[in-house]
Amino acid sequence: MTVVKKNKIGSNTKIHPLAYVEDGVIIGDNTSIGPFCIVRTGAKIGSNCKFTAYCEIRENVIIGDNTSFGSRCTISANAIVGNNVTIKYSFVLTDTPNLEDGNVKSVGNIGDGTLIGANVTLMPGFSIGENAIIGACSQVRSNVGDNEIWYGNPAKLFKNK
Fold this sequence. Notes:
Layout: E1 2-3, E2 8-9, E3 14-15, E4 20-21, E5 26-27, E6 32-33, E7 38-39, E8 44-45, E9 50-51, E10 56-57, E11 62-63, E12 68-69, E13 74-75, E14 80-81, E15 86-87, E16 92-93, E17 95-98, E18 104-107, E19 115-116, E20 121-122, E21 133-134, E22 139-140, E23 148-152, E24 155-160
Parallel strand pairs: 1-4, 2-5, 3-6, 4-7, 5-8, 6-9, 7-10, 8-11, 9-12, 10-13, 11-14, 12-15, 13-16, 15-19, 16-20, 19-21, 20-22, 21-23
Antiparallel strand pairs: 17-18, 23-24
């Protein structure tokens, strides 16, 4: 395990020996960081979170409490993931530079209580609301509202909860 010294790590937090945590990271109590996970500079991870394996949490990401990630998830820089979110394996929250705005990257966010199935991609600049459900193998190319169920490629609204 490589953990740079200028971090704030909560009590009873477990970081696997094969994980890598960069400088300036905050990790809450009772969180588990699995093998081959990378947590980049400035990330803030809440309490009672779980990262299985091979996850990458990029720079300045904020993740709420009680959120879990399956293996091979990538969260792009500056994204916000809410509380009580469940994300299955191979999820990617993408970003892209806005060339008209000095290469500032556009990135989406994920609301509280959301469930995201396996192999889902959230395209740049789109967000998922609170208590939403995204079906497996979906590519989200639109904003998803609160309490909505979406699936497909491209993902489309199935129904409201």
